[in-house]
Amino acid sequence: MLHQIFRFNWKAWRALSVAEQQRIATVAISRLTEIAQPPAGATAHQTVLYSQLGHKGDLMLIHLRDSVEALNRVELQLAQLDLYDYLEPSYTYLSAVELGLYESSAKTYSALAARDIQPHSPEWNAAIKETLERQTAAMSSRLFPTIPEAKYACFYPMDRKRGEDVNWYTERMADRQRMMHEHGLIGRRYADEVRQIISGSIGLDDWEWGVDLFANDPIVFKRLIYEMRFDEVSAKYALFGSFHVGVRLPIENLKDWLSGTLSPSVL
């Protein structure tokens, strides 16, 4: 998963003739449509645009692909567009969609310990592999998600604290499992209003996780995140990065956006 956030050079864009603006926009729409079209057999392939609010950027693109190489191709393809000359990168975020498996992992570890199977032994590794394969099959829709056609998106990166006072990674797994379960109960209450995609970025980017929320009412982002601030895992262990909020921009409406108007998204 790759997030690209750009500022748009409106001054340079306005210096172009209307005919040149139309040409650049037409080519960009055609090429972006091709880039967003999934090839046969792809399990994850989307490119979605958002008109971003605030000073942090003007356009946010979210890409889902099967591999890092495919994401790299997207970057290179976008860089070939004439429109790219007017896009100034302000932020990027690379991550991989993942599932939290605290409960199933704890059950598996406990069962293996009860059988006196040593961690990281061949038998232990085989049991863990079987559990992961079963969970992957059962939760494939979450592991290979599609970006919802909601009108608004909210993206932010986050870490778990690991300082002198509290350190998430030194807590017992049972305690982490309990806190994550309580944390998840809050999210489930908003399941009808907001969809989320959680991606991990340890070793890939500067933060540990990326969170994408999608909803047709942007106020739900505030309500959900505010309520979660009071649960133990967030209040005690969470560090949040910058928040980026955008309005969905269908690729075919890019000309309208470039002319200073934002057409309603087709939901």
Outline the structure in words.
With 267 residues, this protein is α+β, with helices and mostly antiparallel strands. The protein is 40% helix and 23% strand. It has 10 helices and 10 strands. It has helices at 10-14, 18-36, 68-79, 102-114, 122-138, 140-143, 173-189, 219-228, 232-237, 254-258; strands at 2-8, 46-52, 59-64, 87-94, 96-97, 152-160, 194-200, 209-215, 238-240, 244-248. Strands 1, 2, 3, 4, 5, 6, 7, 8, 9 and 10 form a 10-stranded antiparallel sheet that branches. Helix 4 packs antiparallel against helix 5 (122-138). The two termini are 23 Å apart.
Secondary-structure blueprint:
Blueprint: E1 2-8, H1 10-14, H2 18-36, E2 46-52, E3 59-64, H3 68-79, E4 87-94, E5 96-97, H4 102-114, H5 122-138, H6 140-143, E6 152-160, H7 173-189, E7 194-200, E8 209-215, H8 219-228, H9 232-237, E9 238-240, E10 244-248, H10 254-258
Antiparallel strand pairs: 1-3, 1-4, 2-3, 2-10, 5-7, 6-8, 6-9, 6-10, 7-8
